[in-house]
Every structure is written in structure tokens, then in C-alpha cells.
Amino acid sequence: MRGPEAVRLAAALGAIEMALVRRDLVVGPLLAQAARAARETDIAPLLICAAEQTRADDFFADTPPAIARRKMTQALCRAAAHEVHAELLVMTGIEMGAS
Amino acid sequence: MRLFGTDTELLEEAGCDVGRIAECERGLVAGLLEGPRADIHVHIGRDQDGHELDVQGLLADMDAWGIRRTVIFAPNDPGAHHDFADANATVRRSAAVAPARLMHFCRVDPEVSALSVMEEAAAHGACGLKLHPVAQGRAPESAASIACVRRATEFGWPVIVHAGFGARALADPLLHVLDAVPGARLILAHGARGDARAVCAALADHPGVWFDTSLATLSDLVILPRERLIFGTDRPYGDHATALQLIGLAARLAQWSEADVRRVLVGNFDHILGV
Q: Which of A88, B191, B216, B264 has the fewest CB atoms nearer than 10 Å to its CB?
């Protein structure tokens, strides 16, 4: 992952996290965009899988299956965000390992 | 079978591609140190916001992820009298299902019968206190909150304090609490992400302060002292897979030794809970 991709994805995943919590309809388009941005990176499978979840007609429903699907989407996005943050930390050379 | 803490039957009913999700989940923890693990942050019951987890689901997750012990406490379900009586009772009953594996903390609203709720919990085997200053709208440095921390410390209990989303400035209020109750042991949830820079600067080396890793940010975990980190998931808001992924990434980036990883995953939990 190159620097601009990591920054783009970190920004997108932050917005997606909030949109998921708020059940904002923008989740689907944002995730589709993030999945395209992640193409050929290690996190592409996570984001493609997450984006597919949002295509369900009942994605924002209050039924147990829909809630489970949203939780899955959230977990996949969280996993992708962790990976992107790791890339950014390596790129920025932040001082780590305090002890 | 469960994926990210959810029954696969439910996911299949939702039309999810369970095989692909399972593949994604497996990939997150590849290479993470095997061995015993313990989880300091799980809610049992049903939150007002709809998140829920029962003891059977938790035990299934613990078996799947090699979690030896878990600390459980109530979600934000204060009940009609705002005293968490029913929610704490649910947690106690749940802990009784697997007493060797589940340790229970008492949750209170510091302004609502908190000390008597804590006495009852202690009589029923609770071993810690959970405070959520944001959900209950009580400042951690308020007289009522400090009274709870003081009583918990007299019981020998650690106190988990929500320090994540929605938290206001925490460093000075927590210093005030620690000055008022010098023997207190505070576990700041979510790596204190709500005010991480200030907390880290003011409190990271304070002997009474620990950090749980549940839903923490990687950028905080790599700079917090690893000897003060305790693994947590924040189920049902978080999940075991991404919680363990976070530990694996922090360990790699901050060059934790195997002993460091073991300490974070189980050793610090055992130390603070005396098991």
C-alpha cells in the first residue's frame, strides 16, 4: 500500500465507521469507493466483502439477520482500518515500543 | 459455528457468504502467538441500544478463541430505578454458569444507591467495579464517583472506567481520583482513546493505572506501556477476531517480545485480578 492510498483509505474508513453507527445511506457508496481504492492491496478482500453486505435491500432493517449483517460489515471495516493504521504508522515512522 | 461473534445460521439467513467471511476472519489472526488468553471487558445482557450477548454465546466465543477467563459486567441497562439491579443480577447468574471462567464486576450509577449495590455485589462474589462516566453522565472526579472508587479499593477491586468515545478530558479528572484514593487501581477502557495523548503524558507510568485494549486504536497501543495493557474485546460491541488482530499488529509494530504478548493477553489480567 502506498502513502496516498493509505491516507485515502484511513479517511474513508473513518467516515464509514460513523455512517454505519448512524445507519446513514451513504455507507454503501462509501464502501464501494473504498473497496475500489483498496484494489490490489491486502485489505481488498475485507472491503469487497464488506461492500457486498451493504447491497442487501434490508441492510438497515431491524430484523436479527439485518443486524447481524451490519455487525459483520462493521467488523470487516474495523479489521481493514487496523491494517491501514498499521501501514500508516510504519510509513510515518512513529516512535514505538515505549517500554 | 460463529463468525465475528455471530451465529453463522443467522448470517446464512441474511444471505451472507459465510465461507468468504470465515476466510477474512481467519486471516486476521494468522501468526498470532498461541496460548492462554483472558478478556477483561465483556458486557452480558442487553444494552438500551440493542446490543446483546448471552452467556452461552460468550462461552462459545471463548472456546473458539482460546479465552481462558473473561470479566463480565452489565451493558447500559440501568433499569427502571437506574440502579442496575436487574442487569447486575443477570451478570451474576451468567457468571454462575461457568464460575471458573467468568469473573463478574458490578456496574453502578454513582448517584443511585451505588454503595449499597456494591455491598450486595461483593456479598455475591463480584471482584471489580465498572463505571461509565459517559453513559451515566457522571464525572469520574465527582464526589459520588470517588466514593465508589474508594469503596471498590477497600474491597480490593480494580475499577474499569470507560475512556473511549464521548469521554471528555480525562487526565486531570483521573489524577484527582487517584489523589483522593491513592490505592485505587483504574483500568482505562479502550486504551483511553477518548483522551489518549493527555492520559499517556500524565498517567502512563502511574502505578494505579492500566489500559484495556478493547476497541482501542493501534496508534495508542504502540506507545502505551505494554506492561500496563490488558487484552479486552468489548463484546458485543467488539469481537474477538479484530481484538486479537489489534494485538498482533501492535506486537509487530512495537516489537513486543513473546513474553510481552503473553503479558498483554493473559499475564496482566491474572496479576490485576489475583488469579
A: A88
C-beta atoms of A96 and B254 within 8 A = yes
Domain ranges (residues) in chain A: 3-92
Residues B22 and B149 reside in one and the same domain: no
**Containing domain of residue B187, as a range?**
36-273
Phi and psi at B70, nearest 5°, equal: -140, 140
Examine the domain organization and report whether B64 and B148 are in the same domain: yes
> In this structure, are residues A46 and B24 in contact, taking their beta carbons and an 8 Å threshold?
yes
Which residue in the set B10, B224, B241 is minimally distant from A68, CB to CB? B10
Domain of B84: which CATH number?
3.20.20.140
CA distances to B88, B158, B159, B270 from B180, in Å:
27, 15, 14, 26
Q: Are residues B12 and B83 in the same domain?
A: no
Task: Name the residue of chain B whose CA is nearest to A47's CA.
Answer: B24
To the nearest whole angstrom, how far is the Cα of B226 from the nearest Cα of chain A?
7
Which residue of B4, B13, B20, B200 is the best one to mutate when testing the A interface, meaning the one whose CB has the most A CBs within 10 A?
A: B4
CB atoms within 10 A of CB B154: 12
Query: In this predicted complex, what is the ipTM?
Result: 0.93
Find cell 477476531 and name the residue.
B241
- The amino acid at residue B172 is D
Per-residue pLDDT of chain B (275 residues; tens, 9 = 90+): 899 999 999 999 998 999 999 999 999 998 888 889 999 999 999 999 889 999 999 999 999 999 999 999 999 999 999 999 999 999 999 999 999 999 999 999 999 999 999 999 999 999 999 999 999 999 999 999 999 999 999 999 999 999 998 878 999 999 999 999 999 999 999 999 988 889 988 987 789 999 999 999 999 999 999 999 999 999 999 999 999 999 999 999 999 999 999 999 999 999 999 99
Do the Cβ atoms of A82 and B242 come within 8 Å? Answer: yes
Contact A64 B10 (CB under 8 A): yes
Q: Which residue has the cell 510481552?
A: B260
Whether A98 and B5 lie within 8 Å, measured CB to CB: no
Q: Do B82 and B8 reside in the same domain of the chain?
A: no
| Total domain count, chain B | 2
